Each structure stands twice: as structure tokens, then as C-alpha cells.
Amino acid sequence: MEDQSSYGMSVNVEEVVDKFLQLFDSIRLVAPKDEYPIAGRRFLTSMVKSFVETNQPIGLVLPAFPAKSPNVVKKVLGPLPDRGEELAFGVLEGFCKNVESFYSYGAKVVIFSDGRVFSDLLAITSEVVGAYHQECKRMVADAGYTRIHFDTLENHLAKDCASGPNLDQATLIHKLLEAFGTIDLDAHLESDINLLKLQRSIKCFLRLDLEPSKDVLLSEFEGASQNRLQQLFKQKCGEVSKSMILRNMAFSKLVEEAYPDMIRISIHAHTNAGPKFGICLIPGQDLCNTPHTPWHNVIVETSCGQTHIMRRERVDLFKFEVYEHPVYNRPWGFKEKSLINKPIHQTGVEDMEKLVISEAGAPKLLNACDIRLLGSLPIVVKPLHPCGIVIQCVDLPSLTPLDIPSDTLRRLAMQFGVVLLRGFQEVESPGDKLVETAGRIGEIVYWTNFGAVLDVKEVPGTVGSVMSSQALPFHWDGSFKFHNSQLQEITCADTPGFVLFQCVKPPAVGDIGGETLLTDTRRILRSSINAEKLAMLDLASLEAEYYSPASGYFGGRWIQHKFVSPHPITGEPTLRYLEPWPESKSAKQWTIMRAAREADTPVVAEASQLVQELIYNEELFCYKHSWMANDFLFLDNHAVLHARTSFTHGSERHIRRIHFN
């Protein structure tokens, strides 16, 4: 059975399901006695298949995001969401967005907030729960996330009540237990070892959550010894944990009734046999260990770009300090003391907003938080002509590329195609500084021949033209990179998402050439210039094949590409074009092109000629970059084609290049 995607391509149902399961493994928790390989995978396969066969977004429901722990001394920063929730929402939105790369209907997740299920047991008021919930919704909206939705207990239990959604806590819980809570809890705890483990786990964390209200809980035992009070407190934690389990089981039944057809995900480490599957909300956590949640912990970020989640009391305050969010104006997390940002520069915010608006016809990828965060840095942002932006460090180099959040940096590259960072310094690292930088922004792509980084400079005697002083044709990196070694004569390429260049040494004064040419092909396809001619050629239906001799890095076989392909993340149309390059221009690395269908030969030749004219047009589309020492240049490799002019033989021009996803 096949699904017709939004790009007109037939997608095999089994293939979509398999890719979803592979993607799900990236966030799925592995339980100590994991039953996912035995039963869970089969269960999940069936559920995903039902969505795909009916051309529906794959739906997931997550009971989570209740409220912050009331212990603001030992566990959290305050009662409102912070960096932890921000990261968690990014994981959920990113997961759903990644589904769209292989299934056009994508995925969505409903966060069913369970705050009022437990809040009174933890001495958290309904007002505090409501404020937390509203701020979560605000953060998701501000980030521009469209795949996350919210639901609450009141939407289901207050429907027929005169007071509407404003049910008091006691009535709400009474209605929940009346409808779904007829359970013999003690019998369940005796027969279900996993439920017993969960109850014991809850009992442990309750000792910290109930600590702020300990005096009130034990007020009737005033005068008792400390040992006796400690015993009574443990007993109270046990009683509350049982109440939480009972309510959780009732709430679980409500979720099942409200969302019978959706995939149920959880922040708890279930056996993963189905119908519930444990997931990890914070990037970088060990999927085989007990997960940590944002509402019980704080986020700690190191200068090396690592993210840790832990209780507040465990943060090393000699090394880290609290920083505030520039938009929400509240404590956000912990950073190393050298990383705390400077105040907002409103002019910078306005400049960024103008630049985003100037991208007529382009989807708005940067959100309000991105723009405000950029405004908090000592930078000046200006457009490059005719495409891209330059971010210039003010005064002395005081920032590294990593002072711009990695998510924001990737969105900048996708928004503008080309992002030049000028006046920035390298990160501090005992290893390769460029690898450190790229590795914190995304997943590094490693190449068999040279690893992560290619040092692009003239090396006499090498096979390929990349390491010569010759010009290079327009191309995208990875056009000859394959998915695996089981290649057919004609196959598809495996394209890295982003390219990062760093200039170690620019051409010397007096040297000629060595510029990098960069064309954001989306601008060509959005432009009215030659739009009628491009439409007549119907580039979206044309396919070309390319061949370049093997050089040790790429080539050696025919590859096939459509002239126009959708951007895998934004969906925008992009040009996929490898400029034909005769041996007369490069005996070391020539490229030939032919129509994929012989009948299209004249049209493909005409299309190739027109595309070449457009991608070299420096007035309208092509940015010609002259290198300066320590320039960092980010490219969206799906949207931008790049080339190089020839340069003086013997020049010390030295550019380092790395790819990441």
C-alpha cells in the first residue's frame, strides 16, 4: 500500500513505518527488562501503520508537564518553566518535524498536563499549576512550534458542570476517581512488580517535594522527637505515594479513553511492551538510565557545549551561576560564569526583524526568542549582497560561534542560506577547535578518506582539483556521497545538511582570486526574473545524471538528481545542479551531465544553460566572498550551491571545512 505525499511521490507504507520506528529509537528509553524487541515494536508498528494507511498525522499523547517541584532550594529554580522545558519542547517538536522528512503528513504530540491530578498532594495551588501551564503554552507559541498541542483535566471532567472549567481541586479529583479510580491498589501493588517499583520511586522523590511543607504535614505531632518525626515523615511520603499511584492509574484510564487511537508515550521507563513507551525529553541523556525531567531539575550548560540535568543542590556554584532569559525575565538555568550573556540591544533586535521581513516569500524560520537572544549579544547584523547575512562581533573578539545558541544558528542558516561570522574567536578546546564547534551545533558527518575536517589548500601532486589552485564549479557538498556501499550504477546521494568553513589563512595581498561563490537557489526560484522561462522548462519534472571520475573523495559513478527538490526541513523548492565542468578547465576533476531520459536531452541542455546564467549572476543571486582570517561561514547545504574562483599558484590560502546535520 502506498501513500501519496505532498510532493507527489508515492511513499511505501512499510517504508514509512520502518523509518518512524528508527527515528523513535532516538528518543525511546530502554528499560532494564525491555520488552520492546519482543512485543513493543510489533505493537507500535500496528499503531503507526493505522495512521499512515489513512493518510493522517501520526499522533502521540504524552501525560507530562504537571508543575515545577515546590522545592526551589534543592530541586528547581522556581515555579515557572525554564531551559529544561525549552529543551523538552524542542525534542518533541524536532521529532515530529523529522517525521515530515519521510512522511508528508508528519506527526503531532498532545501534552496532557497532569498538574491538577497531583498538585494538592504536593501543596501546590491550582493558581501555580495554571501559571505553569500557561507559560508552557506561551513558550511553544513563541518558538513557532506547530506540532505540539495541549490538553488538561478540566477539558474532560468539567464539561457538564455549572462551574465550567473552574472546578475546585477537591471536586475535580472526586470526579476523576469516581469515573476511573475504582481500583484495588494494594492488590495491584502485590501483583505488579513494575507498579511497586514506581510507587517506591515516587516515595523517594516525595521526600524532597514534600520537604517545604513538612512542618504543616507534621504539625499535629509537635513535641515528638526528631527520630519520631523522621519516621512519621517517611510514613506520610508512603501514604502520598499510594494516593499518587491511585490517581495516576485513574488518569491513565482517562487518557486512554480520550485518545484511544494515539500512541501513548511517557516520561517513565516502562517495559515498552505497549501500549506505553518511555521517552527521554532532554538531549544527551543516557537512554538506558532513569530519565530526569525538567520539572524536578535544572539545566547546567558547560563551556564545552555539554548539557546536564540535575537537582539544583548539586550544581557547582563556584563554576556555574544562574542566568536569566532575556525575554521571559526569570531564572532560566545555569551556565559557566564566562558564558552569561550581556543585556539586550534593542537596535540589534530591530535590525534582525527587518532582515527576516526582507526575505520576501520565504517561510519565517526564526522566532521571537531567536531574535531577542541575538539582540542580547554584542553584535551587528547586516545583509550580504545579494544573499546571506554577516554577523560582526562588536569591538574586540569576545564571542565564539557557540555564544549563538545552536538551534538559533541552524535556523539562521536555513533562513538566510549563508551566514558569515566575522570577528569571532575560536572556542577553547584541547582538541580540534572546529570539530568542537561543529559537534556542538549538530551531528558531524565523517568521511572515509579524511575524517571530519578537510583542510582545503593547495597541495602539489594530489589527485583532485579541491586541493589545487584551480577554479571549482558550482555544486553542493555530498552530491557524490552515498547512503551505503551497496551501490547500483545510478543511485541517490546522501547530503549533509550544513557546511561550516573557517578561514585559517586568506590569500596574501597581491594574490589574485580564491573567492568563494555562493548562491541561495531558493531565491532564484522565488524571483520573478526568468520565472516564465523557468516555468516553461518545468524544472520540477526534469532529471539529470552526473558523472565525475573518482578522486579519492567522490565520483567514479553516475548519480541522478531532479533539477528541483524540496528542502528536507522547510519544504521550500531548491535547485539541485552540478555545473558541467570540461577537462579543459580541470584535468583532475571534470564533471559531465546528461538527461536522465533521452527524450529530455534538448530541454535539459536549455535548462542547464539558463541555470548557469542565474547562479553566476552576482547582481541578483550570487554572493562573492573574499576571505579574511578566522571568518566562519555557515551554509545551508540543501539550499545553497557554492563554487570557487582560481587563485595564484603557490598561495598560502587555507580554508578548513566540516559538515554536520
Automatic annotation (TrEMBL):
Parts forming coiled coils: none
Alphabetic keyword roster: Oxidoreductase
Pfam family name, one: TauD
GO molecular function: oxidoreductase activity
Gene3D superfamilies from the UniProt entry: Clavaminate synthase-like
Ranges of residues in domain TauD/TfdA-like: 382-658
Oxidoreductase among keywords: yes
Matching InterPro entries: Isocyanide_synthase_DIT1 (IPR007817), TauD-like_sf (IPR042098), TauD/TfdA-like (IPR003819)
Source domain of life: Eukaryota
PANTHER family linked: SPORE WALL MATURATION PROTEIN DIT1
Protein's recorded name: TauD/TfdA-like domain-containing protein
Naturally occurring in which organism (per UniProt): Ceratodon purpureus (Fire moss)
The organism's taxonomic lineage, starting at the top: Eukaryota, Viridiplantae, Streptophyta, Embryophyta, Bryophyta
